[in-house]
Automatic annotation (TrEMBL):
<dbReference type="InterPro" id="IPR006242">
    <property type="entry name" value="ModD"/>
</dbReference>
<dbReference type="GO" id="GO:0005737">
    <property type="term" value="C:cytoplasm"/>
</dbReference>
<dbReference type="InterPro" id="IPR036068">
    <property type="entry name" value="Nicotinate_pribotase-like_C"/>
</dbReference>
<dbReference type="InterPro" id="IPR037128">
    <property type="entry name" value="Quinolinate_PRibosylTase_N_sf"/>
</dbReference>
<protein>
    <recommendedName>
        <fullName>Putative pyrophosphorylase ModD</fullName>
    </recommendedName>
</protein>
<comment type="similarity">
    <text>Belongs to the NadC/ModD family.</text>
</comment>
<dbReference type="Pfam" id="PF02749">
    <property type="entry name" value="QRPTase_N"/>
</dbReference>
<dbReference type="GO" id="GO:0034213">
    <property type="term" value="P:quinolinate catabolic process"/>
</dbReference>
<dbReference type="InterPro" id="IPR022412">
    <property type="entry name" value="Quinolinate_PRibosylTrfase_N"/>
</dbReference>
<feature type="domain" description="Quinolinate phosphoribosyl transferase N-terminal">
    <location>
        <begin position="23"/>
        <end position="106"/>
    </location>
</feature>
<feature type="domain" description="Quinolinate phosphoribosyl transferase C-terminal">
    <location>
        <begin position="108"/>
        <end position="273"/>
    </location>
</feature>
<dbReference type="GO" id="GO:0004514">
    <property type="term" value="F:nicotinate-nucleotide diphosphorylase (carboxylating) activity"/>
</dbReference>
<dbReference type="InterPro" id="IPR027277">
    <property type="entry name" value="NadC/ModD"/>
</dbReference>
<dbReference type="InterPro" id="IPR002638">
    <property type="entry name" value="Quinolinate_PRibosylTrfase_C"/>
</dbReference>
<dbReference type="GO" id="GO:0009435">
    <property type="term" value="P:NAD+ biosynthetic process"/>
</dbReference>
<dbReference type="Pfam" id="PF01729">
    <property type="entry name" value="QRPTase_C"/>
</dbReference>
<dbReference type="InterPro" id="IPR013785">
    <property type="entry name" value="Aldolase_TIM"/>
</dbReference>
Length: 298
């Protein structure tokens, strides 16, 4: 089971943002106390994410939720996600926030899974790592969705890892690579040292200077292969991570080139996956059920 993306107070804040002064339409129609039933299901193929948060959100409003699929589950069209019952006001209150959480997160998870599957078809042990370039304010959602798709966080923030960019090195232009690595080891002895490079020669220089990971930024697969071959004898322990422009369409090529990590931002801009919602009186909602195309209700 994946860790929770949101604490209870964060879910409450999402609800308050959507419904700051009550649901005006439900109140004006006088249907708030009517018994209701709501179902969520996949409208098309998707890798599910944040269904647990959606269920908790509805439950915090007083709804009773039956969660049928957890984050990381691959769903087909018509597969059930959750059923909720309670007063109509409660279900209308939680409906859109819960649906939107799942749709956006499942888009991230589905794209991540596509990259992971493409890469691991070639290199079963390769890691797909999501960058920290998530939509501001959406890191918690994004990271859990990435993990639901089989990815791992590259770095959650600047405080977590040592990643040396050219923008750092320009301030120490007279310091040799080995001396810079030594300075970093003394200051952060428990951290791996990652160095981003722009050429094969630069990567080889930093690898032989003692870096643990060489991040090949915007290398073509052929250049990654050349770097991996160059380091095979010179620095075999060094991990080569390919970064920049990696998605489902080229992940296999980078895996075949010998990269052990694929660093990507592609999942963060993935299109949401559609969640079908039916909300109504219990009898009407139950009559709809979860029916897969060409099949029967499970």
């Amino acid at each position: 089971m994946l860790p929770a993306a949101y604490a209870d107070h964060a879910l409450d804040a999402l609800l308050a943002d959507d419904v700051p002064f009550g649901d005006l339409t439900t109140w004006a129609l006088g249907i708030g106390d009517a018994p209701a039933r709501m179902t969520f299901s996949a409208r098309g193929p998707m890798v599910l994410a944040l269904s647990e948060e959606a269920a908790r959100l509805i439950a915090r409003l007083g709804g009773r939720v039956d969660l049928m699929a957890r984050s990381g589950t691959a769903l087909a069209a018509g597969d059930p996600i959750l059923t909720a019952t309670g007063p109509a006001a409660v279900l209308h209150h939680g409906w859109k926030v819960a649906q939107t959480l799942i749709e956006i997160a499942s888009g991230i998870a589905t794209t991540t899974r596509a990259i992971v599957d493409a890469a691991r078809a070639v290199a079963p042990d390769i890691a797909v790592a999501g960058t920290r370039k998530t939509v501001p304010g959406a890191k918690a959602l994004s990271v859990k969705a990435l993990m639901a798709g089989g990815g791992v966080p590259h770095r959650l923030g600047l405080s977590e890892t040592v990643l040396v960019f050219a923008e750092h090195r320009r301030f120490l232009a007279d310091l040799a690579p080995a001396d810079m690595v030594g300075r970093l080891r003394r200051a952060a002895p428990e951290k791996a040292i990652v160095v981003e490079v722009a050429t094969v020669d630069e990567g080889a220089a930093w690898a032989t200077a003692g870096a643990d990971v060489i991040q090949a930024e915007k290398f073509a697969p052929e250049a990654v292969a050349a770097l991996v071959e160059r380091l095979r004898q010179a620095a075999p322990r060094v991990v080569v991570a390919a970064a920049g422009g990696i998605g489902p369409g080229n992940a296999a090529a980078y895996a075949a080139a010998g990269a052990r990590v694929l660093v990507t931002s592609a999942p963060w801009t993935a299109a949401p996956r559609d969640v079908a919602v039916h909300l109504g009186p219990p009898a009407a909602a139950a009559a709809i059920g979860f029916v897969r195309p060409g099949g029967s209700a499970p």
